[in-house]
Amino acid sequence: MLNKWSEEEIKILKKLYNKKGAKPVAKLLGRNPDNVMAKAAKLGIRFSKMRPWEKWEDNYLVRHYADRKNSSISHTLRRSIPSIMNRAKFLNLSAAKSPSWTEEEKKILRELYSDRKNALESISEKLNRSKYAILLQAQVLGISRPRHDHEWTEKEIDYLKQNYQTKSYREIASELGLTHSAVSHQANRQGLKLRDKGKSWTKEDQDFIILNYKKIPTKEIARQLGRSINSIITIVGPLGVSAGRSRSWTEEEFQIMRENYGRIPLQELVGKINRSTQAVSAVAIKLGLTKKRKNSNT
User: For the chain, where are the alpha helices, taking DSSP H only?
Assistant: First the structure.
């Protein structure tokens, strides 16, 4: 258990944390950097070079801290796991922790995991643990699962046939403990074709995209809706939430630029052709009109 913070330590923290950050202060005080970050957050002290938390990030953390792994949240928000944990503590959030692995569970995992005849799904059911937890614990225990020269069982082939039209190869591979390429090759050998049409878009799906596009990563939107990133990118245009491509310039607009650039105020010209200032300036350079404006100003 960590010692309580002394008045002298807090004084040093307040003096140095803003400029130097957690690691130098932790080294000076002989404390863990995570402990220093937590104390600084509690005191409302912020490292000057640290990216401030935005409102949407706090909202995302509140919604998902209890039902998602810190590594997943870290990847989505592009923040370190200690940063996630400290922010959660600051927001008074708590995560449901899974019980520790017993020696009996570890023994069962060692017996079943290395044999590919035991699908991850069945191991998951037997131990009442998620597939993610099983993969993580296997890594901790140093248990490997052979990946090459795999002989498909009838049960695995049946599972592939039953799910290839509703699940991606990557999902099937994860559930069977195989590689993506192994599933893809087996599907080809079985003469299976991917579904031609994707699932239809519901009103709820579309509302979710309109509400969250460009506010959270596209990858996260795709994950929550169970769709591919490409499908999200394809639908945002028709939904009107994509920036899209700018419209092409017409000859008439070019002529207006030649006749007026440098002769009338820039904002007036922008309003005249209904273009942004940046677009007008870029086309002026393209048409060689910048010198004209300079001479006019002179």
Answer: 7-20, 22-29, 33-43, 55-64, 70-77, 81-90, 103-113, 120-127, 131-141, 154-163, 169-176, 180-189, 203-212, 218-225, 229-239, 251-260, 266-273, 277-286, 290-297
CA 75, CA 199: separation in Å to the nearest integer?
Answer: 27
**In the numeric block, which tokens belong to residue 119?**
């699908």
Concatenated DSSP letters of 59-96: HHHHHHTTTS-HHHHHHHHT--HHHHHHHHHHTT---P
Tell me the three state secondary structure of residue 186: helix
Under the banding of pLDDT at 50, 70 and 90, the label for residue 294 is very low
User: Which pTM does this prediction carry?
Assistant: 0.27
Q: Are 119 and 150 a contacting pair, CB within 8 Å? A: no
177-217 pLDDT, tens digit per residue, is: 777 777 887 887 788 865 544 577 888 888 888 888 877 87
pLDDT tens track for 240-256: 676 555 567 888 888 88
